[in-house]
Specification:
Aminopeptidase; about 30% strand; globular; seven-stranded mixed sheet
Length: about 180
């Protein structure tokens, strides 16, 4: 398992990963008709995101197993308060759930944010996504109480799902 920075050439693989993860993980959250964002549209979205290079812009990490991209996460420093980092779009291939991919992605993103002076990392997670919520809670993140309508890109239509904001305090000393 290798953690590395994502490349523009990864957009297609990330779109496929995003769709696989969302299809398996969100079946109790969205109906099939709400999960109708196509591969081409999803790949274009990832491609646009990976082209952003201004600092402090988003930094995307992937986990590879062999030649396959099996996990992704994005970390960025808040544009208003540089002591706040933001983590988002963490997707793991369902074949690798509970296989240590998510903690490796979170470690990479938190290390990146720590190195840039962030003291806290914030992430939005869909309220009914108990798997993701348990994962970040095991690593020390706690809900802040803030809520917003979901920003999940795999959902093609408006839904009545809310995201919860999670906060992870970043120790100046390495997490593990």
């Amino acid at each position: 398992m290798i953690v590395r920075l994502a490349l523009a050439a990864d957009a297609d693989a990330l779109a496929a990963l995003h769709r696989r993860s969302a299809s398996a993980g969100f079946t109790r959250i969205f109906s099939p008709s709400q999960m109708s964002v196509g591969h081409v549209e999803m790949a274009a979205d990832w491609s646009a995101l990976l082209r952003v290079r201004e600092q402090p812009g988003p930094t995307t990490y992937v986990v590879e197993v062999g030649a396959d991209v099996v996990g992704v996460i994005i970390a960025t420093v808040d544009s208003v308060d540089p002591t706040i980092g933001r983590i988002g779009r963490m997707y793991v291939d369902p074949k690798y759930w509970n296989g240590g991919v998510a903690p490796r992605l979170l470690d990479a993103s938190v290390s990146y944010l720590r190195d840039r002076g962030c003291r806290v990392a914030l992430a939005w997670i869909m309220e009914p996504n108990t798997r993701a919520r348990r994962t970040v809670e095991r690593l020390g993140a706690r809900p802040t109480g803030a809520r917003q309508p979901t920003c999940e890109r795999a959902a093609s239509s408006a839904v009545e799902v809310e995201d919860l904001e999670y906060e992870l305090l970043i120790d100046p000393i390495r997490m593990r």
